[in-house]
Amino acid sequence: MENKMNKTLIIAAHPNLAQSAVNRRWLDALRQHPERFTVHELYAAYPHGNIDIAAEQRLVDAHQTLVLQFPVYWFNCPPLLKQWLDDVLTYGWAYGAQGKALAGKKTAIAVSLGAPAADYTRQGAVGYTVAEALRSFELSLRYCQADYRPMFAFHTIDSNAGYSAAALQAIEQSAADYIAWLNQLTEAA
């Protein structure tokens, strides 16, 4: 039986992965390393939104590192990932006096954004950094005593506008950068 404790669990939440250039490419890159990464696609596993809480908790328990991967929607995650957080991170398991499932577990988020990095500055269209806009993930995971690490963020153009050759090359590079970031995440003390 393989030792999953040394593997990283990627909870991938994209409601339309077939139409995704970035998240789909990242998952393709992760699947080239099945000995290191377990890819768990929420929308494929739960097309009707009926999350098996016990199964999800067992999956998290079986991994040393947890990464939530998603496209940013209105400065948040897609709805099924929010439901996953609400349903799976239960009192007595993830937090509370007896809730220690995430205590000390390396956790992070990996996000794609359909806006240029300049938008996520004080002077930009958003007026906040990505970390500030997504602070609730850090707060939630730290509240569960997880070892929250800095995120991986990739900015691209609005996918509705289509992708140029340069944008496609940047997406390809982002997959390599994502793997490198995961390597650092799992190696960091």
TrEMBL record:
This is Flavodoxin-like protein. Keywords: Oxidoreductase. It holds the Pfam family Flavodoxin_2. Signal peptide: none annotated. The keyword Iron does not apply. InterPro entries: Flavodoxin_fold, Flavoprotein-like_sf, KefG/KefF. SUPFAM superfamilies: Flavoproteins.
